[in-house]
Structure formats: structure tokens, C-alpha cells
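Q: Now give one record:
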Amino acid sequence: MFTLIEVPFHLGLEDVAVGKGPRHLLAAGLDQLLGTRGMPALVSHVRLRDLRSQGPDSIVDVNRTVKQSVQQAIEEETIPVVLAGNCNSAIGTIAAIETPRLGIVWFDRHPDFHIPETSISGNIEGMTLSILTGHCHEELRERIGMERIVSEHDVILACFWDVEQGEKERLEDSWINAHPVDSLGLLPVALDQLKQRTDAIYLHIDTDFLEGVENPANYIALVRETLPIAAVGVTNYNPDLDPSGAWKSEILKALESLRPRVQ
């Protein structure tokens, strides 16, 4: 059983740009799609607790509430699926997971492995995987309540193709198991190896990865069939850029593969 956690924020701002995505996915019936025995998935909603917070403070506020919502879903013995605008929701999500040997499988067009020194934009979204593995923004991570970083050895980055300079060199120097979109043949082997080192994983699905692969649902299903999933993050759908709803339909089709196949 799944609990869908709606996090309608874009860099701490509610219901703008990709922050609109979670509401649209729910309205399209994602709770029914991920339901069990005819019952829809549970749904909870994250909102700012301090309406005066701005910038990094609002990101911390949102992620602290994400952490609480994910903890509650796990206590209720459901798998939390965090529907968020931005990838930084992964910080609050992972902060809530108490699995000692936690791994990450990260599907994204971009590696999100910048640090402030390599990022041109300074956008925290492009640094999320670096934050999770302990390379930058330690204060932000600690304020959110993520006490343990995830080892690079236990991270698989897959289906990416849009890599910037600086980030490219950092990735090559890291222990992250990287599988770009044109080199996915060994991904099943990497997942099997990760299974030996971890007890569960956080599965991150940045919806822009769907653009670069054929049958993206197959890759999500491959992860589900290989590794225990502690939590899922779904990010970066902007309905303003999808007036026909065609992209939303593709996302729903891919996310349906989170459900076990009926025998």
C-alpha cells in the first residue's frame, strides 16, 4: 500500500511552476492508479508551517514537514510516494528513513551533483545528490534533520544525459555508479550489486528522465522487482508546459509500474 504525499512547492513557493505538478497528478487519479484492492492510495498534504518563512528557511520548513509525513506513512506500514515540485524534497524524505543501510537509485535527466563552487546558477536543485552524499550545504541538511548521509558507493544514478562541466568532473571522481542514457546495459547488474549492500533504497523519479528513454516504466519496474523500496520521490512536472496533458499521461503510465504485477 502507498501513501501519496503532496508537496506543492517550487523552491519554497507554493503552487507555482513545478509546484503545481503534484496537485495535477492527484487530480488525474494517481491515488486510484496506485490503490490496492479497489481502494485508492492514502493521501496527505504538506503545507508551510511558518507562513513568514522565505528562501532557504521555507525550503527547511517544507522539508521538515515532509520528514514528518514520511515518518507517519512508514509507521502506518505504507510506502510513501512524495509528489513534489523540486528534487530537494529528497532531503526531508531520506531524513525520515531509519533503514541503517540505505541506498539511492536516482533517475534524472541531470545528475544534480553540483556543489556551490561548480554551479553557475547556484540553484540548490542541481546540488541535491551532493547534499545527500555529504558534499555541501551541511547546515541545510542538519536543519532539516537528515542525520546520516548516504555513501556514494550506495548510489546509482541512471538515465541521465544533460551534464554540465564541473559536475561532469565531480561525477567521474566519485564512487557513484553512473549509467547515462546511452549506457544502460549494465544497470541490472548494478542493481543486483546494490541489493547486496543495502536493506532498502530511496527511488527518485525526476519526471524529465522520461524524455530520454524508451519504455521508462520498465526501468522503474526493474528497480521495484530487484530492491526493497523504502520511499519514492516524484518531481519536476510543470503542467503549465503541458497544456494538452500528454506528458502527464506518460508520467502516470510510468508511475503505474510502481505497483507489483498481478500474477
The first helix runs from residue 21 to 27. The chain has a mean pLDDT of 95. Residues 139 and 166 are 23 Å apart (CA to CA). The first strand starts at residue 2 and ends at 7.
